[in-house]
């Protein structure tokens, strides 16, 4: 009886998660599947963005994600974000850009020596 109760409890706990994970090979794939329109990706991504992964907690209205991009595009990407009103700070060789748009706060982290990035977002 105790094992049946344990199994039911485990199933109930694992079945209650509202975290959605989606992967896209390229920015074009993400656009064609409506990921930008849904607001689950940062408002701007570099044209060369690839290996895009997003994880969104629908209950908490939060999300995290990552992508790779061509490092030579880094300066232009930071400039595009800055033109949208992003604030910027640097911490241990990582540029951290914060953008507030459409009721969400996005924090995008760009290490200076790699073509990878991570983000976190939450509804305001």
Keywords, separated by commas or semicolons:
4 helices; alpha+beta; 27% helix; single chain; Protein Transport Mog1p, Chain A; globular; 124 residues; seven-stranded antiparallel sheet
Question: How are the SSEs placed, and which strands pair?
Answer:
Elements: H1 2-14, E1 19-26, H2 27-32, H3 35-38, E2 50-57, E3 62-68, H4 74-83, E4 87-91, E5 94-101, E6 104-111, E7 116-123
Antiparallel strand pairs: 1-2, 2-3, 3-7, 4-5, 5-6, 6-7
What does this structure look like?
This protein has 124 residues and is of the alpha+beta class. It has one domain: Protein Transport Mog1p, Chain A, CATH 3.40.1000. It contains 4 helices and 7 strands, in the order H-E-H-H-E-E-H-E-E-E-E. Strands 1-2-3-7-6-5-4 form a 7-stranded antiparallel sheet. A hairpin with a 2-residue loop joins strand 4 and strand 5. The N and C termini lie far apart (46 Å).
Quick synopsis:
The chain is of the alpha+beta class and 124 residues long.
Q: Roughly what fraction of the amino acids lie in strands?
A: 35-45%
Helix content: 25-40%
Topology, number of strands? 7
Order of helices and strands: HEHHEEHEEEE
What is the SS-derived class?
Answer: alpha+beta
Distance between the termini: 46 Å
Low-confidence stretches: none
Write down the overall mean pLDDT: 88
